Amino acid sequence: MGDRIFLDTNILVYSYEQSADPRYAVARELILRCFRGEVSFVISNQVLAEFFQVITCKSKFPLSKTEARQLISFLIECNSWTKVDYTHTTLLEATSISHQYNISIWDALIAATMVEHNIHIIYTENEADFRKVPLLKVVNPFKKN
């Protein structure tokens, strides 16, 4: 299958929010490719928590917290992708990354979690912040090459 690819929260959000926005179709196809076993994606507990927050509070069509919990539970139990978490050591590394590269602690925590789990490719729309971290290869799947 090749290199594992980390999915940032925005990919999950766009795959959820059905719309005419072309990012919906791209994100949805990425998720479907993962479910079909064509690509190996990795998500973290932090990404799932951020996704929960967006789909219950910031979405155009928010889910109830009960519905969102069911969706998160499905994503946790789904074997199509790998779920990773971070430790207190990762958190300390994230504080250093945040300071060194002047990015938010949340993006730094994703970067540190990726490095800890030997994942170096991230699919995200947030190129500006993640490109500051030299160990990461940032791919914006919404950009035409």
Automatic annotation (TrEMBL):
Q: InterPro entries, alphabetically?
A: PIN-like_dom_sf, PIN_dom, PINc/VapC_TA
Q: Which domain of life is it from?
A: Bacteria
| CDD domains documented for this protein | PIN_VapC-like
Classification via Gene3D superfamilies:
5'-nuclease
Span of domain PIN: 5-134
Q: Which Pfam families match?
A: PIN
Question: Under which name does UniProt file this protein?
Answer: PIN domain-containing protein
Lineage of the species this protein comes from: Bacteria, Candidatus Buchananiibacteriota
